[in-house]
Every structure is written in C-alpha cells, then in structure tokens.
Design brief:
Order of helices and strands: HHEEEEEEEHHHHEHHEEHH
Radius of gyration: 65 Å
Strand content: 15-25%
Shape: rod-shaped
Number of strands: 10
Helix content: 55-70%
Distance between the termini: 205 Å
Strand order of the largest sheet: 3-2-5
Amino acid sequence: MAWNEPGKDDKKDQDPWNKNDKKNEQGPPDLDVVFQKISGLLGGLFGKKSTPGPTGGSGNANGGKFVAIAILTIIVLVWFASGWYTVKESDRGVVLRLGAYHSQVEPGLHWNPKFVDQIIPINVEAFRTLPTSGFMLTEDENIVQVAMEIQYRIVSPEKYLFSVTNPDNSLLQALDSSLRFVIGHSTMDDALTTGREVVRQETWEMLDKIIAPYDLGVQILDVNLQQTRPPEQVKDAFDDAIAAQEDEERFVREAEAYEREKEPIARGQVKRIEQQARSYEEGIVLQAQGAVAKFNQLLPEYQANPEVTRQRLYIESMEKVLSNSSKVLIDNKAGGNLTFLPLDKLMSNPANGASRLPIQTEIETRSRADEQADLDEKAATSVRDSRSTRTTGRD
C-alpha cells in the first residue's frame, strides 16, 4: 500500500512500518515455546503428566503422544529397511561390529543392524597386478635396469584388511627387496640373457618367504620379468655383445645340425665297410677252403700218378699265366720254323675284331688237343710201365 493512502472511516494513514498495531502483528514463533511443546510431547509419551495450559492441554497431550509414536515407528522402519544390503558374486563381505572384526558373509542378500555393523566388500576373484622397476647392482658390479610385475589375488579378506596397515604397499616393498636380492647375486650376462628364467623363479620363491610371516591374505599367481637392460650410456656396447652371443648360439646350432646330418651318413659308411670286410673275409675263407678241398681231391691222383698229375698241374698253371698274354707261341714238334701269331695287333685293331675271337679259340683248341694227346700218351706209358713192374715182381 502507499504510505499516504487514506484509511477507511477517516482513520489514520496506514504505515507499513507502523509497529503500534499489535492486532495485525504476525512474527516467527518463539523457540522457547517450540522446545517446550516438544518436551511436553516426549514427557507424555514416557508417562509424565503434562501441565495443562491456560487453554486446557489435555487434548493436545494425547494428540502429541500419537504423533511421537508415529515418528518413532517411521524411524524404526527406515532403520530396518536401510539394513539390507547385497554382496556381489565376486566379493566377500567383512563385517565390523562396533569397529571390530566380527565375521565374513558370502555373496547374496543380507541384513545388518545399521549404525552397529559396517560391511566392507572385498573382491576375491579379480587378478591384481603390482609392478616395480629400477636400477640394480649385479654381483659383478654392473648396473642393470629391471622391470617386474606380479599378479596376485586376495584369498583371506580379513587378513588383507587387518594384518598390516597397507597390504599393497607391503607387498610392493617385499617384491622390490626380493628382486634386488636376486639381481645382486646374479651376473649381468645372466640377468640380461640366459638367466632371466632363473631370476624370475628365485624372485618368486624369495617373495613367498618374505610375505609369509606378515600373513597378508594374498596369493601370488605369477611373476613376470618384463625387461632387463643396461643403462642407456652403454646400451650400444651391450647390444653388440648380445648380438655376438646370439651369433655364437646360432653357429653352435648350425654345427649341431651339420653333425646330425653327417653322423648317419658316416655310420652308414662304417657299416658298409664293415660288411664289405666281412664279405671279403668270408670270400677268402671260402676260397681257401675250396683250395684245400681241391688239394684233398687231387692228392690221391697225385699219389697214384705223380708224373701225370705234375704235368697236368704245370699245364693248367701255364694256361692261367698265358691267358693274360697277347702273344701266342706254337711249338711244332714235326720240326720247322716256329709259328708266331701277332694277337696283340689283331686285338688292338678294331677292324679285325670280328675275326679275332675265332682265331684265338682255334689256336687254344689245337694247343689243348695236342697237350691232351701228350697227356694220354704219357698216361698210357706210365700204366704199361707199372703193369710190367708188377709182373716182374710177381715172377
């Protein structure tokens, strides 16, 4: 309204800041009055009699009692409803009752008294990783840069939460200590090349020994040695050394492959030579046995007719000797000139190759016929001599 707006019925001007009008004054309620009403309601709820006011407070007290009961009922229902919770399939719930460890709950729907129990979910199926790296001193007083990573999971949630203050940090310190101990007892060549697997295994064993007394409630699943390399200042020299070692291993592998390729061939040659030697031995033995058998068969004939047998052996021996000769001499017993056939020229001349074999065969046939005639004549003479000798002895 306006300040100088005339009032009704010739009243005074209406001033918005006029505080003299006690009838239209509407201010905020007094805090003392509010607290007094609340205390009266609570006192009536617990059996205290409320003092009736000037307006008669009996009805107000009964109404306040019902309101207080309703409020407390709502509070209890809200408290009960807020106590339900769910634990995931991969988690386990650690129950703290008034700040102390009480129990462990499995996955599913559970209820706990609110403001009394506290639930801490811990994932026991997830694989966690923890890396570490740094420059480390080897046994031969060299520096290498090593990086390692471990994988682990929680197997005991209450131990993981309450055994140590910070289990992840404790595990990291144990890993770093184990790795530095193993690298400190290894040479640089082993750490960089051939001994990486040994370093990994020994670090794993050392880590298990260190964390066992702390009872961290974790299980080490794997230890991965990610990289081991020298400092950047000497990296080129070490790359050359590693390349030389790789070349050495490659040459060794090639030599082993060559050995595996040649060894069966050499063994086969050895077997073949051995078999040839055995065959030669058996042939010589059989040949000697045949010669002995032939001699045994010839001995009775020689004992019966020594001269004839001797002459026959001589002729057979000369046949063997002269069979390799290209010249043939024919003895003419009737007298006359000695006949000579130039068989070497006949055999060396390709044009006469067709007639060479019949001539040689004819000559050999004639010589053998003459020799056989001589042998028959000598045999008959010796038989007659033996018979005459026997006759003379009888007389």
